[in-house]
Write the structure tokens for this entry.
Amino acid sequence: MYWWISNLPRTRTKSSSNITSSYENITDGYQFYNRDEQNKNAYLEFKHTVYSRGICGNLQTPPKKRPCTPFFHVHPHQIEKFTILQGHFAYQFGDKIYSCDIHTCPSPIVIPPNVPHTFWMNDNKKDLIIIVRVEPTYKDRGLRAESFENIVGVFRDKSMTIWQVFVFVDNIGTYPIFLTLSIVKIIIKIGSLIGQLLGYQVEYEEYATK
């Protein structure tokens, strides 16, 4: 690993159940649980809280410009499910946008493979709390908690670069939609290879819980 990467500050969150993506707790947080069961059965499930008091709850900022809004993306080999526990949830499903709360959302909201989607907080009266579950269409295509621990850790420690993004995205097999998927996959793969040559990793010892 190149010295400038190995010397980046990394807050040790390994084995933590609750991890936030900012020191100030003004963005969002993740609660991981049942890691052994999830790894055994090749699914990923965690509680995701978007804080209403922080920058992600600023409704004056367009939803897709808030740091807690995932990029518009697809999972070619996974089914994603959202269960709303609190707050008001908005999500884009293909070219349509929906909003709902604990009383009106489907339980769960199901996103099939290859459907572009994203989501955001739609009302900042309360924190948005959801259960996210990602199930693979094939057992060897499952996501792991370690992947998200590393993404959250690098983001919180403000050491995310475009090359690190390429490495992470290629690893989890989740692709942003800005061109056709086949072209995006090629761009991500090339970027990931360059990133790894530069020393960026899929996982860092300070973050990954084994």
